[in-house]
Inverse folding.
C-alpha cells in the first residue's frame, strides 16, 4: 500500500510537470509583454500555468506524506518516528508556502487586465 500511495504522488507530480511544460510550449509566443516602464511582465496565462502546477505539486506532496505515515504506522521505531516528524515538518512547510504562492497567483490571475493589485493601490493612496 505504501508503494502504491507514493507512486500515486509521483504520478501526480510528473503529470502536473508534463502538463505545465506542454502549456508553456503551446503559449511560448505570448509569454509576456513590455509594460509602459519598459519592464517585461509575465502574462496571466503564464501565471495560470504556475498556479496549476502548484496545485499538482501540493497534491503530490500530500500523497507522499500519506505514504510516509502509512510506512510508519505499521511498526514504528523511535528512529522512524523521528524521520516521519522531520519529513512531515518539511513537507508541511513546503505545502504552506506553496499554498500561499498559489493564493497569490490566484488573486493575480483573477484580477481584470489593467487593474492594479490591491496592495499597490492602497500603498499609493
Amino acid at each position: 500500500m505504501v508503494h502504491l500511495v507514493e507512486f500515486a504522488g509521483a504520478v501526480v507530480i510528473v503529470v502536473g510537470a508534463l502538463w505545465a511544460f506542454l502549456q508553456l510550449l503551446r503559449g511560448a509566443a505570448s509569454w509576456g509583454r513590455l509594460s509602459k516602464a519598459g519592464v517585461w511582465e509575465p502574462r496571466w496565462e503564464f501565471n495560470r500555468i504556475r498556479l496549476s502546477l502548484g496545485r499538482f505539486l501540493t497534491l503530490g506532496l500530500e500523497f507522499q506524506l500519506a505514504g510516509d505515515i502509512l510506512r510508519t504506522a505499521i511498526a514504528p521505531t523511535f528512529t522512524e518516528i523521528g524521520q516521519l516528524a522531520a519529513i512531515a515538518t518539511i513537507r508541511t512547510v513546503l505545502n504552506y508556502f506553496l499554498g500561499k504562492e498559489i493564493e497569490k497567483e490566484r488573486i493575480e490571475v483573477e484580477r481584470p487586465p489593467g487593474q492594479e493589485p490591491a496592495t499597490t493601490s492602497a500603498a499609493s493612496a
Summary: The chain has four helices and two strands. The first strand starts at residue 32 and ends at 34.
